[in-house]
Amino acid sequence: MIDHYKIKKSNLAFLGLVSFYLFGFFFNIRGDYLSGDEMGFLSSFSDRGAEHEFDWRYFFWIQYLSVTTGIHTSLPLIINLLLMIISLRILILKGIFSYWIPIAILLTPTVFYFFNSYLRDSVFMIFSCMLLGFFAHKETINIRQLIAICFGVALIGLLRPFYGLIFASCILFSHQFFRRQFTYILFSILASFVTAVVLIAFNHESYIMYLDFFESGHLRERWEVGVMSIPLDSFTPEFAARNFLLSPLFFWIVPGTGFGARYDLFIYVENIFIALMSVLAVKRLDIRRLRDDRAYRIALLGFMFSLFMAAATTTHQDSYRYRLIFIPFLTYIAFAKRSSWVRQVSTSTILHSLQVQKPVKSKITSSHF
Questions:
Q1: What's the pLDDT tens digit per position in 309-348?
Q2: Is residue 328 part of a domain?
Q3: What is the mean pLDDT of residues 264-287?
Q4: In this structure, how many other beta carbons lie within 10 angstroms of the beta carbon of residue 301?
Q5: Which of 104, 189, 282, 351 could disulfide-pair with 304, CB 3.0 to 4.6 Å?
Q6: Which residues neighbour 279 within 8 Å (Cβ) at sequence distance 6 or greater?
Q7: Closest by CA position to 326, among listed 347, 350, 309
Q8: Phi, psi torsion values for 226, nearest 5 degrees
Q9: Half-sphere exposure of residue 322: CA atoms within 13 angstroms, side-chain side
Q10: How far apart are CA 309 and CA 162, in angstroms?
Q11: In total, how many domains does the chain have?
């Protein structure tokens, strides 16, 4: 039964949150500072003398910003905020989250900062929430939803190929076909991560490949490598392997910004929140949920893939925005209400014990994906 009082409180809370964000948009609470990437997107990278160089990872985002900021400089920010609110409201109305959890997420300093920016990372976070909303309380989706998800994954892949691969893998390996092998898939991802650490430490070619990844344009004249900020001249195979192994810790619990005590205080508070979520996520791990909760399987896969994103992060400051895509996955593991999947497990168990098989109706719009 719908609790109208809770919905009313939720609506008021979201109204206050939207007002807070809009105040930040229109009164430029963030200030006039723009990152190098933001200036590049808004100027088609003419500030770097690369306006005539075509890169499809940036082309569509540059065109989108050109159209929307031409109407109003805050329009792309407003669109991102509305899409995020809609995605979170779906998760609330489906009974996945209490209303205060999405609000707490949106009030974290880095989320608020990047939703006030022209970077692409807020879009990736929105799609993570949408994906969880699509698959919450269901194993399969209809044709329209499948087309929409495929379009979204393709778009994400254009903007950042590695993220497109992550989303595609989450959708594929969370399918009910892989339910019995799912724990093996998770262990395989973890084993691949550990294997990469060993190869970097003891195989020279693997070490050179990892070093070249940073040196081939990712450092941008920086002299410290990885989330551990190891000096480039000290980035030996031993330190490279150590950076790869410990990068998830520095990725999720990010060191101070270096921009001053006021900024660092916000980051430390957020780190405490992330750490508490991580502890709660570990505490609430339950293998039974893998059977009937596809969104839970997606969240676990997404979180496991964050290990490799952490290892590929150039500097620890980049962790602030690169982890945005994974925050919804961690939030789902930690806070998704158990009642939504306990009912499903109970129903499936009863039907199985009675050996009742429901007749399947053929529909043109149905899909078993």
A1: 999 988 777 888 899 999 999 999 999 886 444 444 444 4
A2: yes
A3: 89
A4: 22
A5: 189
A6: none
A7: 309
A8: 75, 175
A9: 27
A10: 9
A11: 1
- Exposure pattern of 189-227 as b/e (b: 16+ CB <10 Å)? beeebeebbebbbeeeebbeebbeebeeeeeeeeebbbb
| Sequence-distant (≥ 6) Cβ neighbours of residue 150 within 8 angstroms | none
Average pLDDT for residues 59-64, to the nearest whole number? 90
The C-alpha angle 248, 130, 2, rounded to 5 degrees, equals: 115
**3-state DSSP call for residue 293?**
coil
Question: Quick check: is 353 in a domain?
Answer: no
Q: Token pair for residue 180?
A: 């019995």
- Residue 340 tokens read as 């939504």
Distance, CA of 28 to CA of 74 (rounded, Å): 9
Q: Are 345 and 124 in contact (CB under 8 A)?
A: no
23 pLDDT tier (thresholds 50, 70, 90): confident
Token reading at 191: 């084993």
**Size (the chain), residues:** 369
Band of pLDDT at residue 25, cut at 50, 70 and 90: confident
The token pair that represents 354 in the structure block: 């009675």
Q: Nearest Cα to 335, choosing from 97, 92, 10, 90?
A: 97
Helix (H, G, I), strand (E, B) or coil at 315: strand
Kindly state the tokens that stand for 106: 């949106």
Element containing residue 308 per DSSP (H, E):
helix 294-311
Structural domain containing residue 303: 4-33+74-345
Sign, CA dihedral 169-171-174-177, equals: negative
Task: Report the distance separating Cα 131 and Cα 152, nearest Å.
Answer: 9
Query: Cα(first)–Cα(last) distance of the chain, in Å?
Result: 30
Whether 277 maps to a domain, the answer reads: yes
